[in-house]
Design brief:
The complex is a heterodimer of chains A (about 120) and B (about 110). Chain A is built from no helices and twelve strands. Chain A is mainly beta. In chain A, the strands form three sheets. In chain A, strands 2, 4, 5, 8, 11 and 12 form a six-stranded mixed β-sheet that branches. Chain A has a four-stranded antiparallel β-sheet with strand order 1-3-7-6, with no helix packed on it. In chain A, strands 9-10 form a two-stranded antiparallel ribbon. Chain B has strands at about 5, 10-15, 20-25, 30-40, 45-50, 55-60, 60-65, 70-75, 85-95, 100, 105-110. Chain B has about 110 residues and is mainly β. Chain B has no helices and eleven strands. In chain B, strands 2, 4, 5, 9, 10 and 11 form a six-stranded mixed β-sheet that branches. Chain B has a five-stranded antiparallel β-sheet with strand order 1-3-8-7-6, with no helix packed on it. The chains are: A mainly beta (about 120), B mainly beta (about 110). The interface of A and B includes residues 45, 91 and 104 of A.
Chain lengths: ~120, ~110
């Protein structure tokens, strides 16, 4: 399809385990974001990358979150040693450059992660 | 620390009336503002945006107003329709900044 897609849609993980979430962004888009959305608290950006950087900026809320881009339009968000507080919807978004300015971002449907 | 705040978690409005959604921001470096709409089980979709050089942008039933001195923007939906029932997120970024900061969202319910 032409949009951003994420997999899996739902993920249940045992506390302490590592998880990997995948995002297929729109071909040609330069910037890719990962957000975490929790009920009533909005969305916080976890990582974002520009161009074809292999490894994204990371760090929020801690070094347990990292993202890699094995291909320009594919990103994998990795969460190490999951905690119950990591239970949330993880959204991936991508955007293009438009006349030197960043255009609006297009979002995937999200992956709902539940840590038990 | 939330740099973009939507203080009203929900809004209920009658069909045909105006919906007004408010958003405040704290970062004076923000210069581009966006509104996203989200239906259940779907990702947010872009609705309308405004650059800091403007104070108003209109697109059909949707108008966004920006008050830079007050660090405040609002989204007006006129007239409201049942299909407008969704969660609306305000977002902002700085000049040539790739990172969008989002508010917590406002759930709009349009009553028939």
């Amino acid at each position: 399809g032409a949009g951003v897609s994420q997999s899996p849609r739902y993920k249940v993980a045992k506390r302490g385990r590592d998880v990997a979430l995948r995002c297929d962004s729109i071909s040609g888009h330069v910037t890719l974001y990962w957000y975490r959305q929790t009920l009533g608290q909005g969305s916080e950006v976890l990582t974002y990358s520009q161009s074809d950087a292999q490894r994204d900026k990371s760090g929020r809320p801690s070094g347990r979150f990292s993202a890699e881009r094995p291909e320009r339009s594919v990103s994998t968000l990795k969460i190490q040693r999951t905690e119950q507080g990591d239970s949330a919807v993880y959204l991936c978004a991508s955007s293009s450059l438009s006349g030197g300015r960043v255009a609006e971002a297009f979002f995937g449907q999200g992956t709902r992660l539940t840590v038990v | 620390d939330q740099q973009v705040k939507q203080n009203s978690p929900s809004l209920s409005v009658q069909e045909g009336r105006i919906s007004i959604l408010n958003c405040d921001y704290t970062n004076s470096m923000f210069d581009y503002f966006l509104w996203y709409k989200k239906y259940p089980a779907e990702g947010p979709t872009f609705l309308i945006s405004i650059s800091s050089i403007k104070d108003k942008n209109e697109d059909g039933r949707f108008t966004v107003f920006l008050n830079k001195s007050a660090k405040h923007l609002s989204l007006h939906i006129v007239p409201s329709q049942p299909g407008d029932s969704a969660v609306y997120f305000c977002a902002a970024r700085g000049l040539n900044d790739y990172k969008l900061s989002f508010g917590a969202g406002t759930t709009v319910t349009v009553r028939a």
